Amino acid sequence: MPATISTILRIWIFERSCCPHQSPPTDRTAAQSARCTQVTRQPQSCADTDLCLDPVDLRTRMASQSNDYRVAPETMADLESVLERGDLEAALEIFEALSDERRLKVMRLLAESELCVCDLVALFDIEYSKLSYHLKVLKESGLVTADRDGNYVTYQPTECGNEVIDVIKQFE
User: Fold this and answer.
1) Rounded to whole angstroms, how far apart are CA atoms 159 and 143?
2) Fold of 91-169
3) What is the pTM of this model?
4) Taking the CB of the first residue and of the last residue of the chain, which one, N or C, has fewer CB atoms within 10 A?
């Protein structure tokens, strides 16, 4: 059986528990450890439960199970090659840019028309500097471009930005 989430959770629970058979983690004070042992019922011995296993033993078991896959070995090799050759930096920048609600709304508004910064400030009722930061993030991720016309800076979506807007519209 491959290393499962339950195995990883067992490691996590063990490493954060107050197991009487192991010394508590160094970041806990004596009072915290005492309070923890009062709250949680600890087994009489490590053999009494699956949760109270030595983390080294669990990691060893996980490593020995790492060659067991639910998919064919050829498929696993293909998946590993996708990870090795995949450059996800651009996608990561786009998802980080879209992780803020205001930036999503700006992208949706830009679907209707190119907008000046002053228009966006009025629509969002926020300070110019805050909006400027959000627009900078969108621009750096390649979702919008800016054109200066005298004192006015207008923003419009790029080709990639238009594709993102199409996805955003699907959730309306």
Assistant:
1) 8
2) Arc Repressor Mutant, subunit A (1.10.10)
3) 0.55
4) C
